[in-house]
Every structure is written in C-alpha cells, then in structure tokens.
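Technical appendix A lists one of the benchmark inputs used to test multi-chain prediction within the project. The record comprises two sequence entries:
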Amino acid sequence: MEIKKTICGICTASTHCGIDAHIENGKVTKIEGMKEHPSNEGTLCVKGAASRQYLYHPDRIKYPMKRAGARGSGKWERISWEEALHTIAESLLRLKKDPGPESVIFLTGYTKWMRPYLQRLAHAFGSPNYCTETGLCYSATVVASEINFGAMALPDLKNTKCILSWSVNPFYSNIRLARRILAAKERGVKMIAVDPRVTPLTERSDLHLQLRPGTDGALALGFMHLMIKEKIYDKEFVDRWTIGFDELADYVKEFDPKRVEGITWVPIKKIEAATRMFSEIKPACVVQSASSTVHHVNGVQNHRAITLLSALTGNFDVQGGNCVQTPTYLYTFSATRTNEEKIRLVDQLPHLPKRIGEEEVPVWCKLHPEAQSVLIPFQIHSEKPYPLRAFLGFGANYRMWPGSDFMKDALLKLELLVFSDFFMTDTCQLGDIILPAATSFERSELKFWVENYVMLTQPAVEPIGESKSDVHIILELAQRLGLASQFWNGNEENAINEMIAPSGYTVNELKNYPSGTFLKDPIPLRYKKYEQEGFATPSKKVEISSSILRESGYDPLPIYREPKYSPFSSPELAKEYPLVLTTGARLPMFLHSEMYNVPWCRSLRPFPMVDINPSDAKERGVEQGDWVYLETKRNRIKVKANVTETILPGVVNMPHGNKEADANLLIEPDYLDPISGFPGFKSLLCEVKKI
Amino acid sequence: MRQSLMEKGFLFDISHCVGCYACVVACKDQNDIQEGPENWRDVEIIEEGSYPEVSTMAVSLACMHCSDPPCMEVCPVKAIEKRKEDGIVIVHEEKCIGCRICLMVCPFGAFGMGKNRKVKKCHYCLERTSKGLEPACVRVCPFGALYGGSLAELQEVAFKKGIRRFILRRDSGSSPNKI
C-alpha cells in the first residue's frame, strides 16, 4: 500500500481539503484527510469522505462521444479525442466567421479550477461570453462590497471578539470556516447569527435572529437605526471616511425596531440586543455567505446594508474586523500574487463585443469581468443584440438556472452543445459532443489556500478511461483554433510557471512538496490601508451613497425593497400561496447537483424533502414523510415533507440541484435582482399540498 | 467485569456534534460497507421544543465497546468477544448464526446485518488502530466531537475540555444565555 497526496475537488475552489489516497495496484482503496494540510488537518466532510464512490462511479464518462440519435435520445457513439476536438474546432471556426466569435458561449460550473484558462480561450477566440456559475453565486457579494468599499473584506476570525454571521451555515458547506468559528467560540468570542433556520451555527450562537427570508436589508437598516439613535456607531470613522451618512441617517429613521419586527419577524428585544452587542464589542466582524444574502431580488442592496455595518462600527480593515484582501488565485486569498488576471485576458474585454448582460446589468458587468450567465437563455431566445449559436460547458448544468426548463429549451435552440464532465448528467444528455473530464485524483492542479499554503498536485491514479484534465482539453482545443502561441504551445507546465511567477515559485520547485508547502515569502497583511491609499471607490471613501449606482440609474442608498413575491408585497398571490419559499440551502451530503448520484451520500437522504414547520404542516394535514406537492404559481414538484422545528413558521425550505425534484422549476427565469441579475432563489411564495 | 484504563473506547462530545455524517461515510469507506442500512456508525438528529425555543442535538453512535457487553452475554454461540488486550468488542463472523439477539439487546443500536446474514459492527478499525492510527470516524470528524484512545487518554481529553469550559463560563460571568 502506498499513500499519495492529493486534494478533494468536489466543493468550491477556496475550501478544498488535502487528502491522503491509499493506493493499491493503481487504485484508490481508502481515503482520509491529510493531517499536515493546514486547511483540514486530517479531517474531511461527508462529501469528501465519499470520494472513492465519486471517483469510481459507474456513470463516469470514459470516452469522448458524439450524439448518435436525436438530442436527448441517449444514443451515443464513442469517438477519438482527435475526432472530438477536430469537430468542435471546425464548428467554432465556422461560427467565428459567421455570425461571429461572440456567438460562442464558454461556461464553467464546478469544478472551478480550469476557469482562468477557459476565460483566456474565450477572449483569445474573440468571444466576450465567458460565463460561470459564479454569475449567480458569490459575485454579487463581491460587487456589493466593491460598490461600498472598492474591495472585498474578509472576517479576521483569529483576532475577533464578536462574530455576526449572516445566513450562512458553514458546518454543512465549508468545514474550514466552521472549524475556525468553533475555535473562536472556544476562545469565548460572542456570536450573533442571522438565519431563518435553526442550524448548527445558530445553535452555537449567543443570539439567533430568525428572520423572514429576503428581509436581510430591513434588519441591517434596523441595526443602523438603533446605532444612530443610541449613538453607538463609530462617529470618527464615519465622519472622516464615508460619504452619504446623512442621507442614510435620514433614510433609516423609518426603520425603527417596531417596524423592523413587523417586516422581519425578528422580535424587537433581539434586534436591540444584537445591535448593542455588535456595536459595543470591539473588534467585531461579519461572516457572510457566498450567496444566500444576494439570492433575493433586492440582494445587492441588502448585502450592501449588511456589510456597511462593519464601516459604521469602525470594524473595517482593522485587526479582528473585516479586512481588505486581494484574491490570489481562484477566489482564494493567500498572501502572495499570481498572474491570474493577466492570463484570463481580462484586459481584452473592452475590445470585444458587448457581453451577455452588459445592457441589463451594467454595474455587475462593470465590476465583474464576465458575461452574466443568468441572462444567457434570454439572449438565445431573443437573438438581441446578437445571436448565440454554441455552448461549451465545463461542469455545466442547466438546473442551475431559475426556470431551469426555460434554460433547457434555450440550449436546445443552439447549433452546437459541448459538455465536459465527470458524469453523464441529464445536461450532458442534451449534448452533441461529450468530453470525459478527469477528477482531482487523476489530474495535476495548482491550488492556494487562505492559510498561506500552496500545492501543485500530481495525479494519484491514472485517469478513468480516456478522461483528461480540463486544462489539457482547453490547451488542445486552443491549438486547433489556431491559438497555440497564446496557449504555451500546449505545454501546461509553462502555463503554470507563468501563472505562479509573481509568487516566486516554479513548477519544479513545487513538485518537491507533494503535500504542499507554506508560502516562503508571505506578504504581511496590513490594516487600515485606506489611511494611505483611500478606498478603491470613485470618491476614495466608503460609499454609503454610491456614485456607481447613481450613474447607472439605481438608488444610491442601500435601500430595502420587499421581495417581489411576499405576503406583504403580493397579498393577492399570498392568498393562494401563503408560505414563504426559500431554496438552495445546503444539506451536508449534497452540493448543488453533485453527490445525489453517489450512493454513500444519497442513502443518507434518499428522497427529496421540503422542510416545513409542524404548525404549518398540521394546518395542511401533513405528517413527516408524506408525499406533497411543493407548488408556486409557476410550477410544482413532488417531494416528501420533512416536518421540522428548524424552519421558521410560515417558511418552507427546499434544497436545490436534485433532478428528481428540481426546486428551480418553481422559480420564474426573470425573478432577478436588477443590479446583479441574480435570481431570487431564497424568497418567493408557495403552498404545500398533501397528495 | 473490572475495567482497565488501558482499554480502548470512544469519547463523544455532544456539544461539538453537528450531524454532518462525515463519520458515517468515513466508516463505510474504511470498512468497505455498501450504502444502505448496514451502518456501523450512525448519526441521529434530535429536535426539542417549538418556535421560538427550539434546540437540536446530534448524536453519533457506534459500538461503545462496553465494559460488560450485553451482546456477549446473550450470544448463544459465543461469537462475540471482548478482547483482553485492549477491551475491543469483536464479532467472530465464522461463528455467528445470524440470530440477531445481540442486535436486540444492544443499548446503542450498534449492530448491522451484513449481506451474508451475519451481524456486523464497529471493531474499532482494527486495521488502522493496530498500526497506531485512530479509527476512521475519529480521524474524519471535522469538529472535534469524536475521540479515540485508551480510557486513560480519553479521561484526559474530557478533563481538558471541562477545564476550558469552566474558564469560559467564569470569564463571561455565566454560561451564554439566549434571549
């Protein structure tokens, strides 16, 4: 038996865990967390623990294939890599001439590791339409933060004394973060949790504010109302470093605790206690979710209000507060630099045609150098401002889109659908050409961690069938598109050497550290950088009143708007659909559409289930395990009832990504935030009906 | 039966278990157990109270390697042994007749039924622990809810955890209250 060092690649790029793969006769026989890895220190989550069934799943795609019947007929013909790449390149070059390179969409979902190279391919080919799953996850929180502060600011959990966590349950989504929060708790750090659900994090917090989904902004504005009224905000910081405070003070007058209780369903006493705790304990930080606060139709403004709490309490860019950091590589903040932005050819965007979404969501597009994936189906259908013809998806799944059937129909209108994936998903089934991708166990991959750690993995086992690393696929395709010189003539090591040059490492040096290494020259973190440089906003200050938003015709203040579908904003609809629906919260054993097919995970939750409070279940004659219809005005899905006190009365919670009960069928494709284009996945109206 | 402090066991810290199921799957990976009902370790999440006073608890349970195992008492064919050297309770599958009496008397629901109609349960990851490694469930646990070792070592862990909690409560004047 031999132990090979690798990583789990199942979840998102910044939270992957180090793995010891036990190998016998070239096969993984057992896995365990890598002890010396600072991110997971020998531990794993349930999904990572199931890696062996993921790697050796019978549904892994083993060979390139082309469609041998009608789309979706399930008939496939095995082809060579040569034929697959040749066919794709030929089609793309034809489309490049007519109607133009912008008609080709390059999209990545999970895993994310090939992203810089795919964006380079899109831009070098001449298409501005590089899109990602991040177009409806995470990026809106970055955009909201950039509108306010000109940058993202991460919680300094090591040095904080108070944590305000907002709609995040890292115990089921991010064990790295959860372990650090637990360590803070053990140190005696005070914790406030905002979440409509009872979760392991709310259970461990001193205060739990159980709000109605979508009212996050009103709650944050309620905090501000009290801070200003009780003069417990940081006046010195606010006077010197913010613009728009007076307008805000005026606006939040209407967010008195009584009104905020009415909107959010959080009792006044808790709003007051949380505001005082967060204002008085220094330093304090905000732990935000990657997406749940921005999965509302007022998401960006809600998120702006939440993050502004850091500024109002003087906790911005200070030790133990929220500190400005620049991403190093693949959404990960590590104390070094890479050439990622250069390699992504972000600077080409102004010279390319308009991106999908550039007219609809100009602020998001200005601050986020991608096309907005959420708006793809609309442009496919409308062909405005120009037609779209082909879609190359790396780990793409149409069930990601709100109104997923609308996206499926749109895809089927395209001339060419290419999917690179691990498994024959129902999205792959729609494709014309399917490419087998290698998992993290079978490929070599560069990765940085927030613990100032870096690893260049080497394959632990031979790839299954003829599967290849996504980056290899991209480099080979680039060669056939006549872009060889821009793609290191197909040499991946040269690509990585260029990527890591600013960090002072080379591929050869990193190969000496099979289990990774701490950065040799970490750039020390500086606090209060704004004192020298100002903030990276147009005014160089924290923009409570945003010039960027004003210019594009949006409200410059972090205003609160009710979800479009809510008991208060659409009372007529609420008569028929009285329950608030929130979707997409994580279960420990699944991740988006992943792991439902892995038996060890699936057997822990064999049926799709909707969480409903016992009081709401009783009213409907529904008992635990009953089959019910979860219905919105758009559609309905058949699920089992999970009658649980962990969800707020009046609210039901449905996980997403399960093709057998796709929550996104319930949501209209245009139920979107006007600033980011993000779907309002987490607040609409529904009814639960016993079957 | 007298218990030696050198016997092996698990320490389960309920305040740190979140019901993430990592231990359940790590056990299956280590012991090559198929998905489905045969769990050598299982997790149960228990809810108490109703809105707005709700609390949940998660419990991860496997064979506790009892000092006086009732399963061993009742087994008609003496297929269950508590090992003298380390106190680990094991099933000798070649003797098991699949009568399931052990399964019925076990207070922790530790037994599963294998496809070969023999009872199966945690053997404290003998393959790992004989090499000085911790059991797979202990290794994987991300939140410090499961510990393995001799009873003497586990006492030490529990004592240290207790001290830390005592200090925390003193510093904050009381245990953290919820409103």
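Strands of chain B lie at 8-12, 41-50, 53-62, 80-82, 89-91, 112-113, 119-120, 146-150. Residues 151-171 of chain B form the longest helix (21 residues). Comparable benchmark entries are summarised in Table A2.
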